[in-house]
Write a structure and sequence with these properties.
The structure holds 2 protein chains of 2 kinds. In chain A, 69% of the residues lie in helices and 2% in strands. In chain A, strands 1-2 form a two-stranded antiparallel ribbon. In chain A, strand 3 and strand 4 form a beta hairpin. Chain A has a domain of 110 residues. By secondary structure, chain A is an all-alpha fold. In chain A, helix 15 runs antiparallel to helix 16. Chain B is an all-alpha fold. The longest helix of chain B is centred in the last third of the chain and has 64 residues. At the A-B interface, helix 5 and helix 10 of A face helix 29 of B.
Chain lengths: 462, 527
């Protein structure tokens, strides 16, 4: 009997029992749109999924040796990194893949946002994706503490401390996260449970739903409608390309893990074990969270202790909450995209968000000075360098937008850049500059809306 | 019903008792009743109508317990506190009630801090210089004095009864005439020894304290100079311990605390004027640069700059009460109290005999005394200007083997030091590449220990003894070398493995790409 016959009879056997024919027919006809924008944006979700699967595989391997506990957490990680055969490789891949997963997730999210792939009927895909972003951050935050080393201990102390500023339930949330008033080994037990059980279960469920939506609805076609070109069959063309990308990612991961086993030594992106955590030792200056939390860390620093009768951090977390809420609700707020029309304002929201996050992240990383700045002059130098870099990057992005994509609406991104310039280059207070720019942008947007409504009204009446 | 009424009635009857108990004053003893005289002093104002007892003083008074306030009232009534100024000074010290009790029951101190009764030479004040008094008439100083705080008070030395009348006889040992007391301090050691040499007396205050200070002092250079030769410049108890502000040596503020000893000795020994005419045993003039030299020495820097109280001060080598310049024969023994291993090795060395023959003071001959510098491997050089070379050129030029031994010591030690430094840097680099450097670092620590031991073993001045120790260093270096090689080999293997994996994956990628191209070409053909 030939191979083909065996496969055919196996398929028949399965089909008789599970009615696979409609599913196979659906998959045979499923297509990926080939449109006006490069297809690269369609692969980022797949790349994120690949890194997640690598995390699961390496996480399970680490779990075979990791022992949470006051006297074992640090020691077992040390043992993994030094004595267990290929333990160093597994740990390095786990760490690298964790960061690359968030990198590809963030690019995936912003490409989805800028290409308006969230528009109906894919609102829930956006929402589940946004929830997965939250889970990924949770993975990062909880996994960071597990080696129980000095850096992770202090960074977790600082990170969980900011939770107490969540309005109303802050202190309760702090107790829930820490398992007490302070970061202790009980905090590590909680984080461990979250990292290896709670978050993975939630993540698998949400990834399942997210993928189901995508398989059911297909990839979002470009906003301007079909390009007229025929779509690419999902099976086998797109799936094989996905596989190809996964192999390239695996190659990259292996190379990075072997050549830079402790990370690229960028702020918030290194994982050398260092000294064991000592809860009685004083925290040293310059403790920073992982790179994807740097923007919140910096924003918290920009708020004064008290503002408008509220605690500064409390107000800051309110602002972050509002921004996150806005981001999650974009599919409903972007009414032009809902009608399948171009929505330049929301494209600009995306760019404004990128500039906002870039500046804060660079500033938190103390770009421009060799050591942690201690004087106001050094802080001003950091702000200036970060503003210059952000503005230079934005200038490049704007040229691409104008030259390649014919963008012509820049109000919000300009406001974000003016904010950066006022604060970084002219030395304005971050919040005052932000308030001034937000007010100016709001005025311009409102004036534009008024003009449009007044110019459209006569047309409507006629 | 009846029972309940009975209990209620009982409780009602007990109510005054219960309330009374609740309101009972917290403290026992009589309540303080303010006297008119004390109130007047507290409220007194100066010519500019400003309060003499300031706000801080009055609030301190208000915060005092009743018995302390009553003591103030008594002192004012008995005219021991004679003015608002004096009251203000005592309150400004902000003493707690137990120390106030010491002051307010001590009529000597009260009378001698009353400017109305005393002339500057016998007046205790907050600023004796401004008051024209001797510096030891400092009120704060006497209150911090260990004798005063142990309730020995003025009478302990000056005689009399601090709670009684003012007229009294001084102890027999107390020279009656002021000039006699000041100009000829010969009486002081014996006077202090009345208590400090009496086991029973000292047992009452500080049983752990030795009582042989006076005996030692009598044998010391200071003691002999003062008591036998009548040299009144020679140090006695007061010169080092002070008068009214005596503190135990454990107190950092004490002039005889380890960290302050060099400065205290230097008060005289660094003073060229005071040391004029003073000679050493060999008749040479007493130098005055010891303090400067000590400050720059390895011991001085450790004690004075790093606060390492394990480092020796003057008294650790010269003794304190029995202070004397160390004899040539005993210098090395003193060094041995800390540097025991080096001393023992030296004793067994061939240098011992040569040093004895030349009457050289062993350790001091190479390392110096007050200016002992941190040892360095350069001391072993065989070139001119180096320690070994210079001495051997002068005294043992007929034995070329010595220079060879010194060169061997130096080369071996420098090699070990260099290896320690290099391997530490290599280990750091390997750790950054993610390799396990724990065994390397363990062996590095062992190499460092051997290096220290080898430096010490030089004092045997024997090649075979030295080589026996240094061989462990060579063994450590060999182990490190092989561990480093293994780690580097592992890193090469890692990179090799990566290359093979990359080549394989590249092939798969290529095959997959060709497969996709094939499928798509087929699809295009189909269309």
């Amino acid at each position: 009997m030939s191979n083909g016959d065996t496969r055919g009879s196996l398929l028949r056997w399965l089909d008789e029992r599970y009615e696979l024919s409609p599913l196979l027919a659906y998959m045979r006809h499923k297509e990926v749109p080939v449109g006006a924008h490069p297809m690269v944006w369609y692969y980022l979700g797949g790349a994120t999924l690949f890194f997640f699967l690598v995390q699961v595989a390496t996480g399970v391997l680490l779990l075979m040796y990791y022992q949470p506990g006051e006297a074992t957490s640090y020691e077992s990680i040390r043992y993994i990194a030094t004595k267990v055969p290929f333990g160093w490789l597994v740990r390095a891949i786990h760490c690298w893949s964790a960061h690359l997963m968030i990198v590809s997730l963030v690019i995936h999210m912003f490409s989805t946002m800028l290409l308006k792939a969230y528009r109906p009927p894919r609102e829930l895909t956006w929402l589940t994706g946004f929830a997965l972003f939250g889970i990924a951050l949770g993975f990062g935050f909880s996994g960071y503490l597990l080696p129980w080393n000095e850096l992770s201990f202090f960074a977790t102390s600082v990170g969980t401390d900011s939770v107490k500023s969540v309005p109303v339930i802050g202190h309760w949330l702090l107790l829930v996260m820490r398992g007490g008033e302070d970061v202790t080994i009980h905090t590590l037990y909680r984080f461990f449970a979250a990292h290896v059980v709670i978050l993975p279960v939630a993540c698998f469920a949400l990834v399942g739903v997210h993928l189901l939506f995508i398989q059911r609805q297909g990839m979002a076609p470009p906003l301007h409608g079909a390009s007229g070109r025929k779509g690419m069959p999902f099976f086998p063309n797109f799936a094989l390309r996905d596989l190809l990308l996964w192999l390239v990612c695996l190659t990259g991961l292996a190379s990075l893990a072997v050549l830079l086993p402790y990370g690229p030594s960028l702020p918030g992106m290194e994982w050398e074990l260092g000294a064991k955590a000592d809860p009685l030792a004083p925290a040293y200056p310059g403790i920073k969270p992982e790179w994807y939390f740097l923007w919140i860390y910096q924003l918290l620093k920009e708020f004064p202790p008290h503002l408008f009768g509220l605690e500064g951090p409390e107000l800051c977390l309110l602002v972050v909450g509002l921004l996150m809420g806005f981001w999650a609700m974009i599919p409903w707020l972007d009414r032009s995209a809902r009608r399948n029309r171009p929505s330049p304002a929301f494209t600009d929201v995306g760019f404004a968000a990128i500039y906002f996050l870039t500046f804060l992240t660079l500033k938190a990383a103390d770009l421009g000075v060799a050591v942690v700045p201690t004087t106001p002059e050094e802080t001003a130098v950091v702000a200036k360098v970060c503003a210059a870099v952000t503005i230079a990057l934005a200038a490049g992005a704007t040229m691409l937008r104008v030259g390649l994509y014919d963008h012509d609406w820049f109000v919000l991104s300009t406001a974000a850049l003016v904010h950066v310039a006022l604060h970084g280059l002219l030395g304005w207070d971050y919040l005052e500059a932000g308030a001034a720019c937000a007010a100016a942008a709001a005025l311009i947007v409102a004036a534009g809306a008024l003009r449009r409504s007044s110019s459209s009204s006569p047309g409507a009446s006629s | 019903m009846t029972a309940r009424a009975a209990i209620s009635a009982l409780l009602l009857c007990m109510l005054p008792v219960l309330v009374g108990a609740a309101e009972a004053p917290d403290e026992g003893g009589p309540e303080f009743v303010m006297t008119e005289a004390l109130q007047e002093m507290l409220d007194a104002r100066d010519d500019q109508d400003a309060p003499i007892v300031d706000e801080k003083g009055r609030s301190h008074f208000e915060g005092l317990p009743a018995h302390a306030k009553a003591l103030f009232a008594n002192a004012v009534d008995g005219e021991f506190i004679g003015s608002a100024d004096q009251l203000g000074v005592i309150l400004s010290l902000e003493l707690d009630s137990s120390r106030l009790e010491l002051v307010l029951t001590n009529n000597c101190l009260l009378c001698h801090s009353n400017p109305g009764y005393q002339d500057p030479p016998t007046l205790f004040s907050l600023d004796p210089v401004a008051a024209g008094s001797p510096p030891y008439m400092d009120l704060k100083l006497i209150l911090s004095d260990t004798h005063f705080r142990h309730n020995l008070s003025c009478a302990g030395c000056h005689g009399g009864d601090p709670t009684g009348e003012m007229d009294h006889d001084h102890p027999d040992e107390w020279p009656a005439e002021h000039d006699e007391r000041v100009d000829d301090p010969k009486w002081i050691p014996g006077f202090c020894a009345r208590c400090h040499s009496d086991v029973k007396v000292m047992g009452r205050f500080n049983p752990g304290m030795p009582t042989d200070q006076f005996d030692k002092y009598k044998e010391s250079h200071h003691g002999r100079a003062l008591l036998e030769e009548g040299n009144t410049r020679a140090a006695q108890c007061v010169s080092c311990h002070g008068v009214h502000g005596i503190q135990p040596a454990s107190n950092p503020a004490s002039s005889v605390n380890a960290k302050r000893v060099p400065e205290t000795c230097g008060k005289c020994h660094a003073d060229a004027k005071l040391m004029k005419d003073v000679t050493l045993d060999d008749g040479s003039p007493m130098p005055t640069d010891q303090l400067d030299e000590y400050r720059k020495s390895v011991h001085g820097r450790a004690l004075l700059e790093e606060g390492d109280t394990g480092a020796p001060a003057c008294n650790d080598c010269h003794g304190n009460h029995a202070a004397a310049p160390a004899e040539v024969s005993s210098v090395a023994q003193i060094c041995r109290t800390c540097h025991a291993r080096n001393g023992t090795l030296f004793d067994g060395s061939r240098h011992k005999e040569a040093f004895e023959k030349n009457e050289w003071p062993e350790c001091e001959q190479c390392h110096g005394n007050h200016a002992i510098d941190k040892t360095s491997d350069a001391m072993l050089a065989t070139t001119k200007g180096a320690l070994c070379a210079d001495c051997h050129d002068e005294h043992a030029s007929d034995n070329p083997e010595c220079k060879k031994t010194a060169a061997h010591f130096r080369d071996t030690i420098l090699g070990m030091a260099q290896a320690t430094k290099e391997y530490a840097s290599i280990s750091h680099g390997l750790a950054e590449r993610g390799l396990d450097v724990e065994p390397i670092d363990d062996e590095l620590r062992s190499l460092d220990d051997t290096l220290k031991l080898s430096r010490s073993t030089i004092h045997a001045f024997d090649r075979s003894d030295f080589d026996e120790v240094a061989a462990q260093g060579e063994e450590s270096a060999r182990k490190i070398r092989s561990l480093v090689n293994a780690a580097e080999e592992e890193y090469r293997e890692r990179r090799g493995g990566l290359l093979i994996a990359l080549a394989f994956m590249l092939l798969v990628v290529l095959a997959l790409w060709l497969k996709i191209r094939g499928i798509e070409r087929e699809q295009a053909g189909g269309d």
